[in-house]
Write a structure and sequence with these properties.
By secondary structure, the protein is α/β, with parallel strands linked by helices. It is 34% helix and 15% strand. A seven-stranded parallel beta sheet has the order 1-2-3-4-5-6-7. 20% of the residues are buried. This is F-box domain-containing protein.
């Protein structure tokens, strides 16, 4: 095990191109290189998105192994990546297989025609999730408490509402391990922030917003 850890320490500094080359060497080195390549998945271009989805959707032992490597997943929408509902469904299907996921960032996805991860919020469960970021749309706001309450491991939460997000108060949200919250002040009335675990709060304020829940810490 020690030689493998030494190899991992060295290969952490390798470029993506070098890791791809190492995948074509011995089985040991290939396994380490592959785990590093898939540890953090950041998708921002259509070609990269399609390639990743095609690889992960293959029903084979290799794709099952790849899903166990992914720890951080994010989508950064850009001029070369336009999300459709069909693409959202494919992404949700792949995400549901990432049982070791620790960080999920969907906070940069804002479109003129709102497209949301409804099935993800309604059904997905990631037992090791620590960090979650989401751009909140009106039509799936009611699903947010169900998703958050299923992830008591969460320590870092970022919620960015679309402009002029008007809604009824959210259902109660209990995150006993939450340490950092970044999001609308209007959402705080749904959180139980009296456990003392929260150490940093960054609030998004809009005219008319009221802070209904007292904070047991100094909000930053």
């Amino acid at each position: 095990m020690a030689p493998q850890r030494n190899l991992e320490s060295v290969m952490l500094h390798a470029s993506t191109a070098d890791l791809l080359s190492l995948c074509r060497t011995s089985r040991l080195i290939s396994n380490i290189a592959t785990s590093l390549l898939y540890h953090t998945v950041s998708l921002f271009a259509a070609a990269k998105m399609n390639s990743f989805l095609l690889t992960m959707k293959q029903r084979s032992e290799s794709s099952a192994l790849l899903s166990r490597y992914v720890r951080q997943f994010s989508i950064h929408e850009g001029p070369d990546l336009e999300l459709s509902q069909a693409l959202i469904e494919d992404i949700t299907c792949v995400l549901s297989e990432l049982e070791h996921l620790e960080s999920l960032n969907l906070v940069s996805i804002i479109q003129v025609e709102p497209i949301e991860f409804m099935d993800l919020l309604h059904h997905a469960h990631f037992p090791n999730l620590l960090s979650f970021g989401l751009t909140v749309q009106p039509q799936t706001l009611s699903l947010l408490p169900f998703f958050l309450n299923r992830h008591q491991t969460m320590t870092d939460l970022s919620l960015i509402p679309v402009a002029h997000l008007d809604s009824e108060p959210l259902d109660p949200i209990l995150l006993l391990n939450l340490k950092e919250y970044f999001g609308p002040s209007s959402f705080t009335s749904s959180f139980d922030l009296t456990s003392g675990s929260v150490s940093q709060v960054s609030l998004l304020w809009r005219p008319g917003d009221l802070l209904e829940t007292p904070f047991p810490i100094s909000a930053k």
